[in-house]
């Protein structure tokens, strides 16, 4: 056996090992993937990379947020104009809230309530009680808010206001917009780095990611990406960005903002999220209907599964099983 | 229909849409559409690719009057398609791979009266099949023509899918007919 083929064999077994390894003490994680083009949410077991369940969610499901305790999953339907509340363990829809405008991005407060939904068309966010299903307040933000996130301490809500080229920072207590920050052109997904107090937003129009200090609203960096970046995930000290038009992820160092390579994925990568331990990145490829698992250290694709038609998984779609 | 992409004029609704969003070339509805159409051709893949693989020549499509462009088959190349019966579509080349017999392009400029879509990108791929046959796949991703909520019927998701399906079928069917008749 040549050295080359031995190396290949070893690399192969490492990849297999990464897929097959099971940790009995750890219940594991699963993904709730919105399939926008076939009106379903696929529940994916991330250990074996297999679909364990499909839930019918009508009206083009797009945005998704899993509560921190893993009990609830919230899904927006952009055409149906609804927020569906899913009992994650029971695998069933327990409430459907009818909204107006264009419900899109969704996030949950770390305490489990309330739930925040962006309105793509009416330039506001709804504050919704998950128990009663009532809209308790609305906050006007910039134009076409798309992505939304909440800081880990629960103090601040961040929206990416796509058609105003800005982020809005909202006090979660008073529901007042504390400040806005001008970013690149057409920010879409937004991800919060709790430790550093930074927001990372993907600028679809300027092919870049803006990194913003949440406390001051200062733009710390604007990092070049591939074509039409969609969203950002943070893991292993790196930022991973889905480039819709290139079928790649841009990878950069989350502290120095230096580019650290690119990863080939499939066509139209969109929703992206990190595992709880930061070892893996999961990417929904909208055109090719595939969810990919990527080793966040080696940048290698280590698993793939077909989820359904048009996976977007826009939001925090990973659930840690209790 | 075979030979035209042009939709009927939609009058005040289209005008209103364009007036309301004059500068928002990137504005779009909330749900991107996808479409995959294919055809099997009784001709070797190399021969099919020789006919359709040149980004600067779309004469194989029956709706195209002429193709003007620059940059050959390099990334960033552009072409302007003039349609029979009027209307133009401007496109740019994103990827071109003779080895994989595939190219990927985008529409950079089109009036929704010509084709009711926005943010359109597409792939055209030839795959060899057994027995000297081949399969051509044409894939598209796009949003409807009306960027705001509650679109009029002629600019909604269904209208976009119907129009692009018509374009793809007309092209693929003509390609098959021509190549199987011994054309090149």
Topology, element by element:
The complex is a heterodimer of chains A (322) and B (184).
Chain A lengths: L2 H18 L8 E7 L4 E6 L4 E7 L4 E6 L5 E6 L4 E6 L4 E7 L4 E6 L6 E5 L4 E5 L6 E6 L4 E6 L5 E6 L4 E6 L5 E6 L4 E7 L4 E6 L4 E6 L5 E6 L4 E7 L2 E6 L4 E6 L5 E6 L4 E6 L5 E6 L4 E6 L5 E6 L7 E3 L1 E3 L2
Parallel strand pairs in A: 4-28
Antiparallel strand pairs in A: 1-2, 1-29, 2-3, 4-5, 5-6, 6-7, 8-9, 9-10, 10-11, 12-13, 13-14, 14-15, 16-17, 17-18, 18-19, 20-21, 21-22, 22-23, 24-25, 25-26, 26-27
Chain B lengths: L11 H9 L12 E9 L3 H8 L11 E7 L7 E6 L4 E10 L4 E9 L6 E13 L3 E12 L12 H24 L4
Strand order of the largest sheet of chain A: 7-6-5-4-28
Order of H and E elements of chain A: HEEEEEEEEEEEEEEEEEEEEEEEEEEEEE
Strand order of the largest sheet of chain B: 1-7-6-5-4-3-2
Average pLDDT of chain A, to the nearest integer? 92
Task: Flag low-confidence runs of chain A.
Answer: 1-25
Strand content of chain B: 35-45%
Greatest chain-chain interface? A-B, 24 and 17 residues
Oligomeric category? heterodimer
At the first level of CATH, the class of chain A is Mainly Beta
Q: Architecture of chain A, according to CATH?
A: 7 Propeller
The SS-based structural class of chain A is mainly beta
Q: Which structural category fits the helices and strands of chain B?
A: alpha+beta
Question: In words, what does this structure look like?
Answer:
The complex is a heterodimer of chains A (about 325) and B (about 180). By secondary structure, chain A is mainly β. Chain A has one domain: 7 Propeller (Methylamine Dehydrogenase, Chain H), CATH 2.130.10.10. Chain A is about 5% helix and about 55% strand. Chain A has one helix and 29 strands. In chain A, the strands form seven sheets. Chain A has a five-stranded mixed sheet, with no helix packed on it. A four-stranded antiparallel sheet of chain A has the order 3-2-1-29, with no helix packed on it. A four-stranded antiparallel sheet of chain A has the order 8-9-10-11, with no helix packed on it. The longest helix of chain A has 18 residues. Chain A is globular. Chain B is α+β, with helices and mostly antiparallel strands. Chain B has three helices and seven strands. Chain B has a seven-stranded antiparallel sheet. The N terminus of chain B is likely disordered. Chains A and B meet through loops of A and loops of B.
